[in-house]
Write a structure and sequence with these properties.
- By secondary structure, the protein is an alpha+beta fold.
- It has ten helices and ten strands.
- It has helices at residues 2-14, 22-28, 33-44, 48-66, 71-77, 83-94, 98-104, 154-161, 165-172, 236-252, and strands spanning 127-133, 136-140, 142-146, 183-187, 198-207, 216-220, 223-233, 255-257, 262-268, 274-285.
């Protein structure tokens, strides 16, 4: 898988001044476009579209400093429809406009080329199972929140704190199938997975019962799920589980992620220093 991803990265480098089709990148990587975007974001720490943008502006910055052609020609070559659009994007990344950079020889920001490598630690085995599930529903309070790549998501924290504990107690009694108990569910993520894009966040239960009033319902179709479990210090154990799933498990197993909600069940210790967590991700077998 990583070898194919690196071939896709090489394709990007040769087409920075041309249109780059995500579907073609997925074909080179021998996977789906959805899984390519999900894997890239997890491995690189940024969305695929953001990496391409930053690589283009890195190369464009070098051309600006070298004095090759007009600023408008450089902007158009790297995908900007006007000098103003190029100047805005250039300043957002480099901190100065292209005219200033050419005139004053300013220091610019560089996005290095990425290469993915798999480091095998071998210190522990990942606990997982793959299950086929019929359709089910997630029932509970729901809100739209921004996607945050690192650090706490304050919007989620504020939302959960604002839920009446009695509501969650009633909901928990409706939990009648795995994963049991109150779960956190993320759905309808933007395909780019860019920082600040929005997603649906549910705090609820998986159930076959009718939804109480004033709760949202997410209907989840039948499909295959990979279920990962971990125990350890909170929140490090959960953060490391997400990391290991995408940097170790997917590259080493014949599965890819598919569109669908991502479900996390967490049981905290009394002092909230440790957590037992179960992560459900929708998957499908790779077509060999």
């Amino acid at each position: 898988m990583l070898e194919r991803l690196n071939q896709a990265l090489e394709y990007i480098e040769h087409r920075l001044d041309q249109r780059i089709d995500a579907a073609e990148l997925a074909r080179i990587a021998a996977t789906s476009e959805y899984h390519l975007r999900r894997m890239f974001s997890a491995l690189a720490g940024m969305p695929l579209s953001e990496y391409i943008r930053r690589r283009r502006l890195t190369v464009a910055g070098a051309e600006v400093l070298a004095g090759r052609g007009s600023l408008l020609e450089t902007g158009v070559r790297y995908g900007y429809g006007s000098g103003e659009a190029f100047a805005r994007a250039f300043r957002a990344m480099h901190g100065v406009g292209p005219g200033e950079a050419r005139r004053d020889g300013a220091a610019l920001v560089s996005q290095p080329r990425l290469t993915f490598r798999l480091t095998v630690e071998g210190s522990s085995s990942m606990r997982y199972r793959v299950v086929d599930r019929p359709d089910f529903s997630v029932v509970g309070p729901m809100t739209r929140v921004p996607l945050v790549h690192s650090g706490p998501n304050q919007a989620i924290i504020d939302f959960v704190r604002g839920i009446d504990p009695r509501v969650l107690e009633r909901l928990e009694k409706l939990s009648d199938q795995e994963p049991r108990g109150i779960v956190a569910v993320c759905d309808d993520l933007d395909p780019s997975r860019a920082e600040g894009t929005e997603l649906d966040y549910y705090q609820g239960v998986v159930t076959s019962a009718a939804a109480p009033e004033d709760t949202a319902v997410l209907a989840v179709p039948a499909g295959t799920w990979a279920v990962f479990t971990t125990s350890g210090p909170a929140p490090q154990a959960i953060q490391e589980l997400w990391r290991d799933v995408f940097t170790e498990w997917f590259p080493s197993n014949p599965y890819r992620s598919r569109p669908g909600p991502e479900i996390l069940r967490t049981d905290m210790s009394a002092d909230r220093s440790r957590a037992d967590a179960e992560l459900w991700l929708p998957v499908e077998r790779e077509q060999l």
